[in-house]
Amino acid sequence: MSSNQESLNTLNEIRDLMERSSKFLSLSGLSGVFAGIFALIGSIAAFVRFKTDFYTPTISSSGSFSNEDVISFLLIDGLLVLTFSLASGILFTVRKARKRRLQIWNSSSRRLLVSMFIPLAAGGIFCLAMLHYGYIWLVFPVTLLFYGLALVNASRFTYPEVFYLGISEIVLGCIALFLTGYSLVFWAIGFGLLHIIYGATMYNKYDREVITKTIQ
Fold first, then answer.
1. Is 46 inside any structural domain?
2. Which domain holds residue 121?
3. Residues with Cβ within 8 Å of residue 93, at least 6 apart in sequence
4. What is the pTM (predicted TM-score) of this model?
């Protein structure tokens, strides 16, 4: 092996060590895929419940549903999607971390969680306020916006693909603000379809490499 090749290998090892110490690299692509699947199931449940693929301020004025009925269903539906998504995310993240012999709870993961928690907490409070005042049709695009902001903010501490997912969520949220008649459709695309595409991309790019190295 030439000295240049040895130097290049050494630099790659140093870069890998620096990246591991500064970024959280245990995120699994499968967690994104399953989060997207659960979001699509939640969207379908809302579609079946309200018999429509959109939500407008007039949905409850037809007499079929009251605002309280709609809010209660959306809160339960959203909490179930969130719970199953978090559970699958934790499961696949732990499994990937063990395969790569990485610590799950370290300075990088703490920075990642804090950077996501602040926008998500602010967005959650804002959504609860809109539900309280009856602006139900705006909750869907607002969740996309704040979730996208959280991803962009957290992308500094993990894979760069998270940044582009966040930008995509923000763009969808901005469009949905002006097409509130199709808020549920945009929500399904943002939290469902985009998560599946992102998760599959991450799995093919990073997770398969981990599995191949483990087998070897």
1. yes
2. 28-215
3. 26, 27, 28, 31, 104
4. 0.79
